[in-house]
Amino acid sequence: MRIDIITVSPELIKSPFEHSIIKRSIDKKLVEVHFHDLRKYALNKYGKIDDYQFGGGAGMVLMIEPIDKCISQLFSQRKYDEVIYMTPDAKTLNQKTANKLSSAKNIIILTGHYKGVDQRVRDKFITKEISIGDYVLSGGELAAAVLCDAIIRLIPGVLGDETSALTDSFQDDLLAPPVYTRPSEYDNMKVPEILLSGNFPKIEQWRHDEAVNRTKKIRPDLLNTNED
Ligand code: 6GU
User: Does the CB atom of residue 147 touch ligand 1 within 6 A?
Assistant: First the structure.
């Protein structure tokens, strides 16, 4: 997979790609990530990329020309499955969306800033808009890093244990059950007997029941809906 990230602050977003699982997936060439500094596509030598909004109102808006220049250059080089815009006024990211995107070949992610981008950018180029939750961040960069992490860890070969992504919270609309490791007793707190029993069908049943209980208690909304 190839991911092209268009941003006003490349430095802000680079670090998550330089560590741990994501770094290893890049080293193993399972994914390529390219950062494009929007200022390099600016209208003038002062690096102008934003302007006041028509009709008045606080906050600057990213202009269409620099974004068009950057995206058009990428389009001339390869085909893209999706051009994603990170913005709080969009559908919230969920596991199903991450699963779908993890099988894409090439994607572009555009991150907003200030008041966002000129609506015509969204109309002309964007095929998918994604928010990461019902709160506002100061820019889309951290949200883009979250999206990339959620996608990249699902690419086959990225996680050592192929099954571990499948048993994550949310893969079956349930939160993950509790997990324990040594010691089996600590400060009078014992690991549930069943986990030490070696009875794997029973252990699976216990894990499922715990997952359902946890979901009922913390996220009952997950049990009632089948929506995207
Ligand atoms: Cl994608 N961008 C910004 N600026 N804030 C957010 C967000 C995105 N998702 C949730 N809050």
Answer: no
Atom nearest to 139 CA in ligand 1: 4
Instruction: Just give the CATH number of 169-224.
Output: 1.10.1270.20
pLDDT tens string 118-161:
999 999 999 999 999 999 999 999 999 999 999 999 999 999 77
List the chain domain ranges: 2-152, 169-224
User: Of how many residues is the chain composed?
Assistant: 228
Q: Tell me if 28 sits within 8 A of 152, measured CB to CB.
A: no
* pLDDT value at residue 225: 65
Q: Is the CB of 88 under 6 A from ligand 1?
A: yes
Please report which confidence band the pLDDT of residue 213 belongs to, taking 50, 70 and 90 as the band edges.
Answer: very high
Instruction: State how far the Cα of 164 lies from the Cα of 112, in Å rounded to an integer.
Output: 33
143 ligand 1 Cβ < 6 A: yes
Query: What is the CATH code for 2-152?
Result: 3.40.1280.10
Spacing, Cα 86 to ligand 1 middle (Å)? 6
Instruction: Please report where in the chains the tokens 């950062």 appear, as a residue.
Output: 35
